[in-house]
Write a structure and sequence with these properties.
CATH class of the largest domain: Alpha Beta
Strand order of the largest sheet: 2-1-3-4
Strand content: 15-25%
Radius of gyration: 16 Å
Distance between the termini: 19 Å
Structural class: alpha/beta
Number of strands: 8
């Protein structure tokens, strides 16, 4: 049995149910939540102050891997801050670790995605910050569109079809891009990944799919996972 430690904004058992649908059955997740009420720098800074306490709490468990999710929490301090965070985590625990934004950029490289469109549930100011983060890692966002949700509660209430409504126009208007990126693990869009890939013939990278791909590779569990896009299918 393998165990993943997961630190994520506003984590819940209901959210973990969605994660377990993708993970192989012999993996458990020990989750800890960062409180982020609204998408503001003040909230992100408060979450940051709690972060290393959660890392230390998780060191009490026998973990095989540690993942930190939350694109907006990770990007609020600027491009490259994910690497600084991981260096600091390495001083607390020897457990292999990564962040979701590290996973997203690695996944884009794995799939050959250099120019993408980005469909999000976030407000425009947060989208712009996230784009700067990706550009720093040579992932160019040609166009983006968001749903202007101000917190994760609003995002969690969105149906999967909302992802289709945002992503389809972007892909139709920008047929020359390499693929699509859709952030936020509270946006329950994993069921539409393959639908979009089949409809447009381009790879799709999402939050939960990308970090699970990273975790499985790190734990040497390279059995392909079907039903959630090209990325997991090519493990």
């Amino acid at each position: 049995m393998k165990r993943i430690g997961l630190i994520s904004p506003n984590i819940s058992e209901e959210f973990l149910t969605d994660v377990y649908r993708i993970l192989p059955p012999d993996i458990t997740v020990e989750g800890r939540g960062l409180r982020v009420r609204e998408f503001t720098d003040q909230e992100f800074a408060r979450a940051e102050s709690e972060f290393f306490g959660l890392v230390r709490e998780l060191t009490e468990y026998s973990l095989d891997f540690l993942m930190v999710t939350g694109e907006l929490f990770l990007s609020y301090k600027g491009p490259g801050s994910d690497r600084q965070l991981l260096e600091a985590v390495g001083e607390v625990t020897p457990v292999p670790a990564s962040t979701v934004l590290t996973s997203v950029t690695d996944a884009c490289r794995e799939l050959g995605l250099k120019r993408v469109v980005m469909a999000t549930p976030f407000p425009e100011d947060q989208d712009t910050r996230l784009i700067h983060f990706l550009e720093h890692d040579q992932i160019h966002v040609k166009a983006f569109r968001g749903l202007a949700c101000e917190n994760s509660r609003q995002i969690w209430a969105l149906p999967a079809e909302s992802g289709l409504e945002v992503a389809r126009p972007l892909l139709k208007e920008n047929p020359d891009v390499d693929g699509l990126y859709m952030p936020c693990n509270k946006w329950r869009i994993t069921p539409i990944i393959e639908q979009l890939e089949q409809e447009f013939g381009k790879p799709v990278v999402t939050n939960t799919q990308a970090w699970i791909w990273t975790a499985l590779r790190a734990m040497k569990l390279d059995q392909p996972v079907e039903g959630y896009g090209r990325l997991l299918a090519r493990l």
